[in-house]
Design a protein that fits this description.
The protein is mainly alpha-helical. It has 16 helices and two strands.
């Protein structure tokens, strides 16, 4: 029969002493966290649950058949893609369907599928024919940009498909909307907007905006969509941005247009206007993961 704690204390004063020190140590350790630190920790936890929801963000976008057409064209090499994700635990049933079948379901952006969506939207952004890419093509080193030179999951090099495939059709009004939002949608890995998609994030964002505009999303909705995607692609940076907005009493997703602009989302703007103010106040919470401009 097990002896009770009370019986053990009566039996052995050493046990009682040890128990006392354990309780005292636990109490003192708890005191080490000041009320302000505890509140800050709770605030960060609350922010994380809001900006990185496990169930994700349900968008108004359906991918249709654009991804299977990328596979059919060779812009995505299915076997290369499967091998890449085989080393990462394998493609899910849903991911396999997006690569091979028409999808009429609303796209959901989640922390779990963020990398996969980045890697299927990336080739769409550089392969889909659009006037924005006509301008990008005039850049002398276009073939060596991270968005093009870094895309190694096609059957041929990225320039074989660059601005060649008519996958997303836009009306003149929708095209104007994409151009407007893409010129004001930055990412913290560089100082360029999505209107110059020189890296994977810029190309993927351009594709996302094209899809959204083609399916009737408004300017405000496109900015919210862009912020949702960037938040999942750059979790460390945008957790800090959300922290800053929270400190200033401003709602994060309600200010999507402002946040996506160069002041808060370009590399230099984010460093000066988000990171530095928080650093000076000693308010730099940790977040796992970050954005990488590769597959």
């Amino acid at each position: 029969m097990k002896r009770s704690t009370f019986a053990l204390i009566k039996k052995s004063p050493y046990y009682a002493a040890a128990l006392f020190f354990i309780i005292a140590a636990a109490f003192l350790l708890n005191l080490e966290k000041s009320p302000s630190e505890a509140q800050a920790s709770d605030d960060v936890a609350g922010l994380k649950s809001r900006i990185f929801p496990e169930d994700g963000f349900e968008t108004e976008i359906a991918l249709g058949n654009v991804i299977p057409k990328l596979v059919e064209s060779g812009a995505i090499d299915f076997e290369k893609f499967r091998q890449l994700y085989g080393a990462r635990g394998g493609l899910t049933v849903e991911q396999l369907k997006l690569l091979t079948e028409h999808s009429s379901e609303q796209l959901i952006l989640t922390p779990a599928n963020a990398n996969f969506l980045l890697n299927i939207l990336w080739p769409l952004g550089i392969a889909n024919k659009n006037p924005i890419l006509d301008e990008t093509a005039q850049y002398q080193g276009v073939a060596n940009l991270a968005a093009t030179g870094g895309w190694t999951l096609g059957k041929k090099d990225a320039m074989t498909y660059f601005n060649k495939l008519e996958l997303i059709k836009l009306t003149p009004q929708q095209q104007s909307l994409v151009e407007k939002v893409s010129k004001n949608s930055y990412r913290p890995c560089c100082n360029n907007p999505s209107a110059f998609p020189d890296c994977n994030h810029g190309a993927a964002m351009l594709a996302l905006l094209e899809l959204g505009a083609s399916q009737g999303m408004s300017e405000e909705e496109l900015y919210t969509l862009a912020l949702q995607a960037n938040t999942l692609w750059f979790p460390q940076q945008y957790l800090l941005t959300a922290t800053l907005y929270n400190l200033n009493g401003k709602d994060y997703f309600s200010n999507a247009e402002e946040i996506m602009g160069g002041k808060y989302s370009s590399s230099s703007g984010w460093s000066a206007n988000v990171y530095e103010p928080l650093r000076q106040q000693g308010l730099l919470p940790k977040a796992e993961g970050g954005g990488s401009c590769g597959v």
